[in-house]
Design goal:
The chain contains 13 helices and 10 strands. It is an alpha+beta fold. It has a domain of 71 residues. Strands 1, 3, 4, 5, 6 and 9 form a 6-stranded mixed beta sheet that branches. The protein has a two-stranded antiparallel sheet with strand order 2-10. A hairpin with a 5-residue loop joins strand 4 and strand 5. The protein is globular. It binds iron/sulfur cluster. Iron/sulfur cluster binds next to helix 2 and helix 13.
Protein backbone atom coordinates (compact mmCIF):
# COMPACT_ATOMS: atom_id res chain seq x y z
CA UNK A 1 0.00 0.00 0.00
CA UNK A 2 1.32 3.47 -0.89
CA UNK A 3 1.73 5.57 2.21
CA UNK A 4 0.42 9.12 2.48
CA UNK A 5 2.70 11.98 3.50
CA UNK A 6 2.17 13.71 6.82
CA UNK A 7 3.53 17.25 6.55
CA UNK A 8 3.32 20.15 8.97
CA UNK A 9 0.73 21.86 6.76
CA UNK A 10 -1.38 18.73 6.64
CA UNK A 11 -1.22 18.28 10.39
CA UNK A 12 -2.12 21.92 10.93
CA UNK A 13 -5.10 21.61 8.62
CA UNK A 14 -6.33 18.49 10.43
CA UNK A 15 -5.98 20.24 13.78
CA UNK A 16 -8.01 23.17 12.42
CA UNK A 17 -10.84 21.15 10.87
CA UNK A 18 -11.07 17.50 9.87
CA UNK A 19 -13.52 18.33 7.06
CA UNK A 20 -11.05 20.79 5.64
CA UNK A 21 -8.35 18.13 5.85
CA UNK A 22 -10.57 15.71 3.93
CA UNK A 23 -11.33 18.21 1.16
CA UNK A 24 -7.78 19.57 0.87
CA UNK A 25 -5.64 16.46 1.40
CA UNK A 26 -7.82 13.45 0.65
CA UNK A 27 -9.85 14.79 -2.27
CA UNK A 28 -7.23 17.37 -3.27
CA UNK A 29 -9.73 20.03 -4.31
CA UNK A 30 -8.98 23.73 -3.89
CA UNK A 31 -10.27 27.06 -5.11
CA UNK A 32 -7.75 28.16 -7.80
CA UNK A 33 -6.80 31.34 -5.90
CA UNK A 34 -6.34 29.43 -2.64
CA UNK A 35 -2.92 30.79 -1.77
CA UNK A 36 -3.35 33.71 0.60
CA UNK A 37 -1.32 36.87 0.26
CA UNK A 38 0.36 36.13 3.61
CA UNK A 39 1.40 32.67 2.43
CA UNK A 40 2.70 34.03 -0.89
CA UNK A 41 4.78 36.70 0.88
CA UNK A 42 6.35 34.10 3.19
CA UNK A 43 7.05 31.77 0.27
CA UNK A 44 8.81 34.47 -1.79
CA UNK A 45 10.88 35.63 1.20
CA UNK A 46 11.93 32.02 1.91
CA UNK A 47 12.89 31.56 -1.72
CA UNK A 48 14.98 34.76 -1.65
CA UNK A 49 16.87 33.53 1.43
CA UNK A 50 17.36 30.13 -0.18
CA UNK A 51 18.73 31.63 -3.38
CA UNK A 52 21.08 33.89 -1.44
CA UNK A 53 22.26 30.85 0.55
CA UNK A 54 22.96 29.06 -2.73
CA UNK A 55 25.10 31.98 -3.89
CA UNK A 56 22.80 33.21 -6.67
CA UNK A 57 23.51 36.81 -7.82
CA UNK A 58 21.50 39.53 -6.07
CA UNK A 59 20.10 40.66 -9.43
CA UNK A 60 18.59 37.19 -9.98
CA UNK A 61 17.08 37.19 -6.49
CA UNK A 62 15.58 40.64 -7.09
CA UNK A 63 14.14 39.55 -10.42
CA UNK A 64 12.64 36.45 -8.79
CA UNK A 65 11.05 38.57 -6.04
CA UNK A 66 9.50 40.93 -8.58
CA UNK A 67 8.15 38.09 -10.71
CA UNK A 68 6.66 36.05 -7.84
CA UNK A 69 5.49 38.61 -5.27
CA UNK A 70 1.71 38.86 -4.99
CA UNK A 71 1.75 42.56 -6.05
CA UNK A 72 4.26 45.29 -7.06
CA UNK A 73 3.91 46.79 -3.56
CA UNK A 74 4.81 43.46 -1.96
CA UNK A 75 7.76 43.12 -4.33
CA UNK A 76 9.16 46.40 -3.00
CA UNK A 77 8.55 45.31 0.61
CA UNK A 78 10.01 41.80 0.25
CA UNK A 79 13.05 43.10 -1.61
CA UNK A 80 13.80 45.59 1.20
CA UNK A 81 13.24 42.99 3.93
CA UNK A 82 15.43 40.46 2.15
CA UNK A 83 18.22 42.97 1.55
CA UNK A 84 18.28 44.44 5.05
CA UNK A 85 17.91 41.04 6.73
CA UNK A 86 21.13 40.10 4.99
CA UNK A 87 22.71 43.41 6.08
CA UNK A 88 21.56 43.05 9.71
CA UNK A 89 23.01 39.58 10.14
CA UNK A 90 26.13 40.05 7.98
CA UNK A 91 28.42 39.85 11.02
CA UNK A 92 26.85 36.68 12.30
CA UNK A 93 29.25 33.75 12.56
CA UNK A 94 26.92 30.87 11.76
CA UNK A 95 28.32 28.20 9.49
CA UNK A 96 25.72 26.94 7.05
CA UNK A 97 25.65 23.14 7.02
CA UNK A 98 22.63 22.81 4.75
CA UNK A 99 19.75 24.76 3.24
CA UNK A 100 16.35 23.44 2.22
CA UNK A 101 17.03 19.93 3.55
CA UNK A 102 14.24 17.66 2.31
CA UNK A 103 13.23 14.67 4.43
CA UNK A 104 10.82 11.78 4.20
CA UNK A 105 10.89 9.28 7.05
CA UNK A 106 8.55 6.71 8.60
CA UNK A 107 6.10 7.83 11.25
CA UNK A 108 7.07 5.79 14.32
CA UNK A 109 4.96 4.58 17.23
CA UNK A 110 7.00 5.85 20.22
CA UNK A 111 5.72 3.03 22.46
CA UNK A 112 6.57 0.09 20.21
CA UNK A 113 9.01 1.61 17.63
CA UNK A 114 6.68 0.18 14.96
CA UNK A 115 6.46 2.06 11.63
CA UNK A 116 3.11 3.39 10.52
CA UNK A 117 1.67 1.53 7.54
CA UNK A 118 -0.32 4.61 6.56
CA UNK A 119 1.97 7.62 6.85
CA UNK A 120 5.49 8.85 6.27
CA UNK A 121 6.54 12.22 7.60
CA UNK A 122 7.86 14.73 5.07
CA UNK A 123 9.04 18.31 5.02
CA UNK A 124 11.75 20.77 4.09
CA UNK A 125 14.06 22.27 6.74
CA UNK A 126 14.96 25.91 5.94
CA UNK A 127 18.50 25.64 7.24
CA UNK A 128 20.90 23.65 9.40
CA UNK A 129 23.72 25.73 10.91
CA UNK A 130 26.66 25.38 13.27
CA UNK A 131 26.93 28.10 15.91
CA UNK A 132 30.29 29.58 17.00
CA UNK A 133 30.16 27.41 20.16
CA UNK A 134 29.84 24.25 17.96
CA UNK A 135 26.17 23.62 18.75
CA UNK A 136 24.08 22.59 15.75
CA UNK A 137 20.79 24.36 15.13
CA UNK A 138 17.82 24.34 12.83
CA UNK A 139 17.18 27.80 11.39
CA UNK A 140 13.54 28.48 10.68
CA UNK A 141 12.58 31.62 8.75
CA UNK A 142 9.25 33.20 9.57
CA UNK A 143 7.48 36.30 8.27
CA UNK A 144 4.67 37.75 10.35
CA UNK A 145 2.53 40.84 10.80
CA UNK A 146 2.58 40.31 14.58
CA UNK A 147 4.65 42.22 17.10
CA UNK A 148 7.95 40.35 17.51
CA UNK A 149 9.49 42.49 20.25
CA UNK A 150 11.30 40.38 22.86
CA UNK A 151 8.44 40.58 25.40
CA UNK A 152 5.65 39.90 22.90
CA UNK A 153 3.33 36.87 23.00
CA UNK A 154 4.72 35.85 19.62
CA UNK A 155 7.54 34.03 21.37
CA UNK A 156 5.21 32.13 23.69
CA UNK A 157 3.59 30.61 20.64
CA UNK A 158 6.89 30.06 18.79
CA UNK A 159 8.15 28.18 21.83
CA UNK A 160 5.41 25.59 21.23
CA UNK A 161 6.01 25.19 17.48
CA UNK A 162 5.59 21.55 16.56
CA UNK A 163 6.82 22.23 13.03
CA UNK A 164 10.38 22.67 14.23
CA UNK A 165 10.15 19.64 16.55
CA UNK A 166 9.25 17.62 13.45
CA UNK A 167 12.42 18.93 11.83
CA UNK A 168 14.51 18.02 14.87
CA UNK A 169 13.44 14.38 14.83
CA UNK A 170 13.93 14.12 11.06
CA UNK A 171 17.09 16.19 10.55
CA UNK A 172 19.27 13.09 10.35
CA UNK A 173 21.77 14.47 12.85
CA UNK A 174 21.93 15.71 16.43
CA UNK A 175 20.18 19.08 16.79
CA UNK A 176 20.90 21.12 19.92
CA UNK A 177 18.91 24.25 19.33
CA UNK A 178 16.08 25.73 17.27
CA UNK A 179 16.67 29.23 15.88
CA UNK A 180 13.62 31.30 15.01
CA UNK A 181 14.70 33.91 12.49
CA UNK A 182 11.63 36.13 12.33
CA UNK A 183 10.93 39.05 10.01
CA UNK A 184 8.12 41.44 10.77
CA UNK A 185 6.18 42.74 7.79
CA UNK A 186 5.98 46.55 7.82
CA UNK A 187 2.93 48.40 9.04
CA UNK A 188 3.69 51.48 6.93
CA UNK A 189 2.26 51.84 3.43
CA UNK A 190 2.57 54.46 0.63
CA UNK A 191 1.24 57.83 1.79
CA UNK A 192 0.77 61.40 0.66
CA UNK A 193 3.97 63.35 0.11
CA UNK A 194 4.43 65.68 3.08
CA UNK A 195 4.86 69.40 2.32
CA UNK A 196 8.20 69.41 4.13
CA UNK A 197 9.54 66.85 1.62
CA UNK A 198 8.62 68.84 -1.52
CA UNK A 199 11.79 71.04 -1.65
CA UNK A 200 14.02 67.92 -1.48
CA UNK A 201 11.84 66.15 -4.02
CA UNK A 202 12.31 69.06 -6.41
CA UNK A 203 16.04 68.40 -6.08
CA UNK A 204 15.47 64.76 -7.02
CA UNK A 205 15.80 63.37 -3.46
CA UNK A 206 13.40 61.56 -1.13
CA UNK A 207 14.33 59.99 2.22
CA UNK A 208 17.98 60.22 1.25
CA UNK A 209 17.54 58.37 -2.05
CA UNK A 210 17.58 59.70 -5.61
CA UNK A 211 14.22 59.99 -7.30
CA UNK A 212 13.90 59.53 -11.04
CA UNK A 213 12.33 62.26 -13.14
CA UNK A 214 9.39 59.94 -13.86
CA UNK A 215 8.75 59.38 -10.14
CA UNK A 216 9.07 63.08 -9.48
CA UNK A 217 6.45 63.89 -12.15
CA UNK A 218 4.10 61.16 -10.92
CA UNK A 219 4.41 62.21 -7.27
CA UNK A 220 3.86 65.86 -8.24
CA UNK A 221 0.75 64.93 -10.22
CA UNK A 222 -1.07 62.85 -7.63
CA UNK A 223 0.61 64.03 -4.43
CA UNK A 224 1.40 60.47 -3.29
CA UNK A 225 4.59 58.46 -2.94
CA UNK A 226 5.47 56.24 -5.87
CA UNK A 227 6.51 52.68 -5.00
CA UNK A 228 10.19 53.59 -5.25
CA UNK A 229 9.68 56.57 -2.96
CA UNK A 230 7.82 54.37 -0.49
CA UNK A 231 10.70 51.89 -0.71
CA UNK A 232 13.16 54.67 0.16
CA UNK A 233 11.09 55.60 3.23
CA UNK A 234 10.81 51.94 4.22
CA UNK A 235 14.60 51.59 3.97
CA UNK A 236 15.02 54.48 6.41
CA UNK A 237 12.48 52.94 8.79
CA UNK A 238 14.17 49.51 8.72
CA UNK A 239 17.70 50.81 9.18
CA UNK A 240 16.69 53.21 11.96
CA UNK A 241 15.06 50.44 14.06
CA UNK A 242 16.16 47.05 12.66
CA UNK A 243 15.21 45.21 15.87
CA UNK A 244 11.58 46.13 15.14
CA UNK A 245 11.80 44.14 11.91
CA UNK A 246 14.27 41.38 12.70
CA UNK A 247 14.51 39.09 15.70
CA UNK A 248 16.49 35.91 16.10
CA UNK A 249 15.80 33.79 19.13
CA UNK A 250 17.05 30.36 20.08
CA UNK A 251 15.22 27.65 21.96
CA UNK A 252 17.00 24.58 23.29
CA UNK A 253 15.78 21.17 22.21
CA UNK A 254 14.14 19.57 25.25
CA UNK A 255 13.81 15.79 25.35
CA UNK A 256 10.46 15.80 27.19
CA UNK A 257 8.92 18.09 24.53
CA UNK A 258 10.22 15.86 21.75
CA UNK A 259 8.72 12.79 23.39
CA UNK A 260 5.37 14.50 23.86
CA UNK A 261 5.43 15.58 20.20
CA UNK A 262 6.16 12.03 19.03
CA UNK A 263 3.09 10.81 20.94
CA UNK A 264 0.99 13.63 19.43
CA UNK A 265 2.18 12.74 15.95
CA UNK A 266 1.35 9.09 16.32
CA UNK A 267 -2.09 9.96 17.75
CA UNK A 268 -2.82 12.21 14.78
CA UNK A 269 -1.76 9.48 12.40
CA UNK A 270 -4.27 7.15 14.07
CA UNK A 271 -7.04 9.78 14.00
CA UNK A 272 -6.52 10.45 10.27
CA UNK A 273 -6.39 6.74 9.44
CA UNK A 274 -9.57 6.11 11.39
CA UNK A 275 -11.36 9.05 9.74
CA UNK A 276 -10.40 7.84 6.25
CA UNK A 277 -11.53 4.26 7.02
CA UNK A 278 -14.91 5.31 8.38
CA UNK A 279 -15.45 8.25 6.01
CA UNK A 280 -16.16 10.47 8.99
CA UNK A 281 -14.82 14.00 8.64
CA UNK A 282 -16.19 16.27 11.36
CA UNK A 283 -16.70 19.94 10.61
CA UNK A 284 -15.37 22.64 12.92
CA UNK A 285 -17.65 25.67 12.47
CA UNK A 286 -15.47 27.64 14.90
CA UNK A 287 -12.73 27.70 12.26
CA UNK A 288 -14.81 28.75 9.23
CA UNK A 289 -13.99 32.45 9.55
CA UNK A 290 -10.36 32.16 10.67
CA UNK A 291 -8.08 34.45 8.61
CA UNK A 292 -10.95 35.74 6.47
CA UNK A 293 -13.14 32.81 5.39
CA UNK A 294 -12.38 29.18 4.70
CA UNK A 295 -12.35 28.42 0.97
CA UNK A 296 -14.82 25.57 1.56
CA UNK A 297 -17.42 27.65 3.41
CA UNK A 298 -19.80 27.66 0.43
CA UNK A 299 -19.71 23.86 0.24
CA UNK A 300 -20.08 23.25 3.96
CA UNK A 301 -22.84 25.79 4.49
CA UNK A 302 -24.79 24.24 1.59
CA UNK A 303 -24.33 20.76 3.02
CA UNK A 304 -22.29 19.60 -0.01
CA UNK A 305 -19.84 16.79 0.71
CA UNK A 306 -17.92 15.84 -2.46
CA UNK A 307 -16.69 12.27 -2.82
CA UNK A 308 -14.17 10.42 -4.98
CA UNK A 309 -13.43 12.34 -8.18
CA UNK A 310 -16.17 14.96 -7.65
CA UNK A 311 -14.89 18.46 -8.40
CA UNK A 312 -17.51 21.03 -7.42
CA UNK A 313 -17.96 24.16 -9.57
CA UNK A 314 -15.36 26.81 -8.72
CA UNK A 315 -12.77 24.24 -7.59
CA UNK A 316 -9.92 22.38 -9.28
CA UNK A 317 -8.23 19.09 -8.49
CA UNK A 318 -4.58 19.34 -7.45
CA UNK A 319 -1.95 17.16 -9.13
CA UNK A 320 0.09 17.23 -5.93
CA UNK A 321 -1.47 17.99 -2.54
CA UNK A 322 1.98 18.89 -1.12
CA UNK A 323 3.27 21.65 -3.45
CA UNK A 324 5.56 22.93 -0.66
CA UNK A 325 7.67 19.78 -1.14
CA UNK A 326 8.25 20.43 -4.82
CA UNK A 327 11.68 21.68 -5.89
CA UNK A 328 12.36 25.05 -7.46
CA UNK A 329 10.59 25.42 -10.76
CA UNK A 330 13.15 27.85 -12.20
S1 LIG B 1 -15.94 25.85 6.07
FE1 LIG B 1 -15.67 25.43 8.24
S2 LIG B 1 -16.42 23.36 8.54
FE2 LIG B 1 -16.09 23.62 6.35
S3 LIG B 1 -14.02 22.90 5.95
FE3 LIG B 1 -13.87 25.07 6.33
S4 LIG B 1 -13.44 25.26 8.50
FE4 LIG B 1 -14.23 23.21 8.16
Amino acid sequence: MTKSLLTHSRLNTARTCMRKHYLRYELGIIAPDEESEALAVGTVFHKAKEWTGLGKPDADVSAMIHSRAPSPLWAVIIERLWWYHHWYYSEQKFETIDTERWFCAPLINPETDRKSGAFDMAGVIDGVVKLPDERVGIREYKTTASDISPDSRYWDQARMSTQTLGYVINAGQQIDVILFDVVKKPGIRPKKVAKKDVPQLQLGLYCGASVSAEDWVQASDDGRETLEMYGARLSVDITSRPEHYFQLREFPVIEAELNEFKRDLWSWGQILKDAARKGWHPKNPSACLNFGACQYLGLCSAGIVPEGDDVPAGFVKMDNVHPELEGDQE
